[in-house]
Structures are given as C-alpha cells and as structure tokens.
Amino acid sequence: MRLKRLRGEESESSPSILKKYMKRYKGHYFIGFIALVIVDVLLLQIPLITGSITDGLQKKTLTQNDLMSQVGTLVLLGLLIASIRFVWRYFIFGTSRKIEYGLRNDFFRHIETLSLRFFNEHKTGDLMAHATNDLNAIRAMVGPAVLMAFDAIALTIMVIYQMLTVISVQLTLVAIIPLPIIAIGSLFLGKTIHARFKDKQEAFAHMSDMVQENISGIHVVKAFIQEAKECIAFSKTNRNNYDKNMRVVKLFALMMPLAMMVTGLSIAIILGYGGYITILGRITLGDFVAFIQYLLMLVWPMMAFGWCITLISQGSASLVRFETLLNEKPDIFDDETVKQIEALQGKISIKHLDFTYPGAAVKSLDDISLTVNQGETLGIIGRTGSGKTTLVNMLLRMYNPPRGTIFIDGHDMLDLPIKVLREAVGYVPQDNFLFSDTIARNIAFGVSEENVEAIETVAKQANVHENIIAFSDQYATVIGERGVTLSGGQKQRVSIARALIKKPPIMILDDAVSAVDTSTEEQILGHIHEERANKTTIIIAHRISTIKNSDKIIVLDEGRIIESGTHESLMAQTGTYYDMVQKQQLEKELEKE
Predict the structure, then answer these.
(1) CA torsion sign, 470 to 476 to 480 to 484?
(2) Which of 232, 235, 361, 555 has the most C-beta neighbours closer than 10 Å?
(3) Phi, psi angle pair for 225, to nearest 5°
(4) pLDDT tens per residue across span 450-481
C-alpha cells in the first residue's frame, strides 16, 4: 500500500507545495508577465507598419524619408523586443529553476527525516526518479508551461482584438472558425497524456532501480557469471521503459500536427476569402498583408497550447508523485513526553522486549531482558538471523520499541530526545558504509569539525593509521563510492575510527572486525578497551575470540536469549556457546593442516 501511495496511485489530499513557491516568487512572475505583454504589444505593431509600407508602395505615396523612418522603427522594435524578451526569460525561466532548486532541497531534507522502515519498503530507483525526472517535469510545468499558457492567452486575445478592430470583423470571424478544434483536441489528449506519463515515470523508476542494484552487486554478478542473464533481464526492463515512453511520444506527436493542420486551414481560408474581398476593395492590400501576419502570429499560440497541455499533464502527474512522498511521515520522532536531557552516561536496561518487523508474522526479538552497566562490555553472539542486528536497531531507535522496555540511564528510550540518544551512541555497522570522500572526512563524519590530531589518534587506535599514510595523499585520499579503493579490513577499521572519534558513552560494534586477522583484532579490541575503560561497549560477533573477554556475553537464537554469562561460566554450561567454541577451534585446527 505504501509503495502505491508513493507512486501517486493513492494520495491524501494536501495543499500543493507549489503554492508556497508560487507565492514566494509572485513578484518575479509579475515582472516576467509584464515584460511578456510589452513584447506582445510591440510585436503587434510590426504588421501595421508593414501594411502601411505595402499600401504606400501600391499607391506610390511612400516617400524615401517615410520608408527609412518606418524601416528604422522596425529595427528599433526588433532591438526592444530582443531586450525585453531577455527580461521575461530571466524572470520566468529563472524562477522555475529557483523553484526546482527549492523543491530538490525540500526533497532531500524530507528524505533525511524518514525512518528506516521507509527505506526498507521503497526502492532507491523510485526515489531517484523523484529527484530527477519528476522534478524536471515540475520545473517545466512552472516555467515553460506557465509562460506558454500566459503568452498563448494574452497574444491570442490581443491579436484577435487587433484583427477585429483594425482590419475586418467579418474576415476575423471566418479565420478563427477552425481554432476551437485545437482546444478540444488538446484537452482530450492532455488527460490521456497525464495517465501515460505517470506510467512512464514508474517504468523509469523501475529501470533506474535495476541499474543501481546491478552496479552495486556487480561483484556477485561476475562471480556467478550472470552478465548475459542480467543483460537479458535489463533489456526487458528497458523495453518496457521504451514502450511506455513511446506511448507518450505518440500522443505528443499528434499535438503539433493538429495545431499546424488547423492553422494551415485558417490560412487557406484567409488566402481565399481575404484575397476575394481585397479584390473587391473592401480592404486594402496593406490590410490583407497585415492580416496574414496577424494570423501567422496565432500559429505560436496554437502550437503553444498543445505544448502547454502536454507539459502541464506531465508536470501534474509528477507533482502528485512528489507530493505523495512529501506527505510520508517519519515513524521515529520526539513526541510531547520527551525529556530535556543534555547527555547520557551509558547504562542500558532492557525489560521483556518483544519486537516484530512491520508486515512480518514472526517475532524478531522475544522477551529480551538484560542490563549493561556503565563501563561494561557486552558480547552478543548467535547464528545468522538470531536477532543480533535487530537488537542494535532497537538501541539506535531505528524502530520504536514498546514503551517501558528499553531504558538508558533509567530513562525510557521513548522519552529521550532522538538527537541526544544518537549522539550518545557510536555505531560501527556490519556493512561498513563509507562515503565517496576523503579518509579524513569519513573518520570525522560524526563530529562538527575536522581535528587532524584527533583523526590520527583514533586511526591509530583502529590500527589503520599505517595503511592510510602509505597512500600518496594519506588522509586526503578520496576512497571512492562506498570506499571501493579500500580493502574490507581497511573499511572496517576506518568505520571503527569514525565511531571512536565521537567518544560516545555507548559504542556498538556490529561484526566490526570480521575482515581482519586475529592478531589485528586483538590489538584493536585492546585499544578500544583501554580507551573506553569507563564507557559502555556492545560487541556483536560470530568469532568467539572477539567477545570472549567481555564482562557479559549473551547467546541469541530465534530472537531469544538462550544463554548468558561470562566466557568461563558459559563454557562450564557446555551448551550452545560451548559448542560454538569447540566448532571454531576445530575449524582453526583444520585450517592449520
């Protein structure tokens, strides 16, 4: 249901976000429209001058001075039109770019507020389509479409008024008979374009998501020799995107021929009927020439009307999708019960915690109870899918736990300001995500300013300093997307340094040293233990060696704590933990052989 709402198939009604920007920039639009009207008024003078010249030449009453004067007037009009045209282009097109800029900032700021659940339920490609294609379509609607709509209406009214009052009422009425065909056809096609454009945007989002996913997982594709299979799958997705685009193109292709056909029909009528009444002397040749020029001026409004309907149809479809996303509310937020707490010390108490992921039928955590005092180290071990990372998500409040189940320093987690809670936690994630930036900035990501000495200190504690200074640019080395230029072990150690530099009261390492050898692991854990003597540390691991020196160890299985104690007490129980130790020791012995 949420995916459908994001795509705009189902959206709560809300005031358009565009109203805010249209109100903010109404002065810009006003100046642009005034400039546009002035240009149109100046354009209306050209047929009158050419008509006057034509009559003067026909009657042989035009003197050389009159000719030069009128030609000079035409040149001056051309210069004025060009100058003022720059004004309306700047204020209307420039404003559409400002609105696009503001909407893109709104989009990014809103995305940053949404909860982890939202990102688990929505694809990256669809979100990227909002930030690119949808915003481009909205910009075209508030820029070129607004311009064309206003200009088409204003110019059409002024031209027809000029034709009626200056030339001939009868000839004008005959000339505009075919024009309603364009309006009717455009309205019909516009509704269809709106629906097809929405399908086109969704097809593009699906294709973008497939490309992003394939590039991210290219090592898996190559390892399983699935390049050809993925190319075939992409070809089908790309074909669907092409077909949806062509459905829009076919309709769009009808707009211009329709406008040109009707305009051509009007011109044919005028050439026939207008020529006839000119021969009869009801209008002068100059009036006839001017009338044809006025009629040709109507070609642009008729074409613009078609373009305008298309752009508005596309933009409104994108606006529905975009506003639906902006209507998404975060699940995690500070409510009225939040306490004004400046900092936390690090004592954690969990009481009978149950948790089930949204949409899941099975509990991920079942009756979890434990206490970690300030300064203690808790080791968590368990099979894959036992609930280790889910417990981390609870402690980071990526999902809301039930009230009265998790307490930090005696405060219910739900009563703590989110900012204070997350500032108190240093987190080393399992996937070791790094940004495409310098090593120094990645390490200093969680602090307000880059302190070279502090960065180097935590890098040494994470045993990655020597690796960093071996690079030609050292800490200024740009590590590429997701840290692609670093090895798995180096990425893990940079992630550890990033958490250490915060000096957090609580630190969580989620399988954070799995890619380093046991000797390096011992050094890193030794540095962490020394640095964090009076601070709380939670270590999640698969290797027994990573957690065996913890003050407390819990063994998770199917979301429940099945064993807890110290390394020695758990070994004495000869249960699941004991079996894990024996199995890992056997694996080491086999590796030596």
Answers:
(1) positive
(2) 555
(3) 50, 50
(4) 788 888 888 888 888 888 888 888 888 888 76
